[in-house]
Amino acid sequence: MTKRIIKTLFPLFLGMSLLFIGNGLVVSSLSAMLKSKEISEIAIGLINSCLFVGAILSTLTSHVIVSKVGHVRAFAIFSALFAVASLMYEISLNLYFWAFLRMCLGYCYYALLVVIESWLNERAKDKIRSRILAFYEGVFYISFGLGILIMALELSQTQVFIISAAFIMLSSIPLNLIKTKEPRLPERESVSLPKIFNIAPLALTGSFIAGILINGFFTMASIFILSQNFSLSQASYFMAFAMIGGFVSQFFMGGFSDKFGRRMAIITSCLIGLTASITFLFANGNLNMLYLIAFFLGSGIFCLYALSLARANDMLTHKSQSIQVGRTLLFSYSFGSLVASSIMGVMMSLFGAAGFIYVYIVLLIILLGFAITQKTVPLKHRQTYNPYTIKTTIIDELKINDEISDIKAKTKA
């Protein structure tokens, strides 16, 4: 059944792969472009933060547009706006204008994720859900990594924007080939940080720090490498090695956390990431060593959000709380992502390239210390680990709200 569903949804997976390639290219290239124009690290960090301002605004308002025009048209609208925003960078070098466009990219990208995941929710039933999500995760890592690797071609600014816009515009074509009922939109629920902190403090802290470390890497890692006088192609390989490490660790940490608990898995991830971060300080510009360390850094940090979400679910006494907890952790992760680039920009302005690593060392020590003080959840209370990061939270919300809508419809009938 899994192969049949994947085959049926092939146009959707093709469309999302094109979207992830285009997004990976434009998101990763902008920081390098600004660095080449001798823009300060602080300014680059602030501009990158606007991406997540748009993301937060998208989670609050994009569903209104989708509900009015439908999912297929919404995908076409947001992909078109995404592509236009990518091309508009060529008009002006004004930093305020670039920050505004960065915000537009974040808004459109997260809106497109909601549309894509609505379709997956429609088809990913319980029995095959984990396998569909695993395939989805594989498409994300491979496609986003390909987008990053395109940087290695050292294209001109104009070429980067044209190629990324082309991928993004092409992504809407396969979706229009799907013949399926458009999914319902979920009802929005409130987010309560204090309430969730009381229930699962380690999960909330872990998701916030994960937002800083993961998205800080995507937006500022190229600056870290370029600041050491390496080329843009070498920066792209560095980021690709980290993504490979993150992809591999998702599956290793699943079995490890199911056996030893999420707390121990978070501690282990922190130790791996912390060891890699400290080792960066002794790499002495050895490029091959930097690639190897990047692999282990990715292995340590890229599974932190999934582990935090699993920890939160283990702590719940009522399953009905899972959606509110998931959305609160997603908000915490998004807020961490919002401040990540600014924090790293300031640190790199003060301490040079090493400032990027100092952020990882300090935050991983904080999370490690906090995790050590928490208790391990007994085996009988642990739920199955799901390595599919943020995407699972959105899909879970869509799935449960669909079930609620069905119950309401049957009650009215």
TrEMBL record:
Subcellular location: Cell membrane
UniProt topology in membrane: Multi-pass membrane protein
Cross-referenced Gene3D superfamilies: MFS general substrate transporter like domains (1.20.1250.20)
InterPro entries named in the record: MFS (IPR011701), MFS_dom (IPR020846), MFS_trans_sf (IPR036259), MFS_YcaD-like (IPR047200), Sugar_transporter_CS (IPR005829)
Transmembrane stretches, start-end: 12-33, 39-60, 72-89, 95-120, 132-153, 159-178, 199-225, 237-257, 264-283, 289-310, 330-351, 357-373
UniProt cross-references to CDD domains, sorted A to Z: MFS_YcaD_like
Protein name in the entry: MFS-type transporter YcaD
Organism: Campylobacter majalis
Organismal lineage: Bacteria, Pseudomonadati, Campylobacterota, Epsilonproteobacteria, Campylobacterales
